[in-house]
Design goal:
There is one protein chain. The chain is of the alpha+beta class and 162 residues long. It has helices at 21-37, 123-136, 147-161; strands at 41-43, 53-57, 67-78, 82-87, 97-102, 104-110, 116-122. It is globular and about 45 Å long.
Length: 162
């Protein structure tokens, strides 16, 4: 159901485009896939759609997911201060590792009607949105790690997968 690491589609960058019925349909499919996986967020890449759409739960990790769909999301601003926090991916099940991310971020996006919006996200919600925007831009979360850590995680995943 989900595109798995190291599928080359995970390295592709989605091109921004106007919100239309096709993009909205992908957003709804993505929301359903996130709910099915109980994921904190997903990018279109995870379901094989290299499109500029992500879904993010803005609630705390232990809370019920409250998915929001962001079309054409971009990072408008982010904190200089970074925090380490756990990240994983449906593309690499069973793997979690701390990644450094800004404490907060301002994300610009289009809503379902194509209207430009911005939202300031803090903590966990910022981490999830930044993770998914990276994926939408072809940057898998492991590429925020040193080569040594990344190789260690990949070896661990290969053992889990075997």
């Amino acid at each position: 159901m989900y595109v798995g690491f190291p599928d080359p589609r995970l390295k592709l960058k989605a091109a921004l485009r106007p919100v239309d019925a096709d993009l909205i349909a992908i957003g709804e499919q993505l929301r359903g896939a996130a709910a099915a996986a109980d994921a904190y967020g997903l990018a279109g890449h995870h379901i094989g759609a290299i499109d500029p759409v992500i879904v993010v739960s803005l609630s705390a990790p232990e809370a019920v997911r409250d998915y929001r769909v962001f079309y054409n999301p971009v990072v408008v601003d982010s904190a200089e201060a970074l925090d380490a926090g756990p990240e994983g991916s449906v593309a690499m099940p069973g793997v979690s590792i701390d990644v450094m991310r800004p404490r907060w971020a301002v994300v610009g996006f289009d809503d379902e009607s194509g209207m430009a919006q911005t939202v300031r996200l803090e903590g966990w919600a910022a981490r999830v949105a930044l993770h998914e925007i990276d994926q939408m831009n072809g940057v898998f979360f492991l590429y925020h790690l040193s080569r040594m850590k990344r190789d260690m995680v990949i070896r661990r995943y290969q053992k889990i997968k075997a």
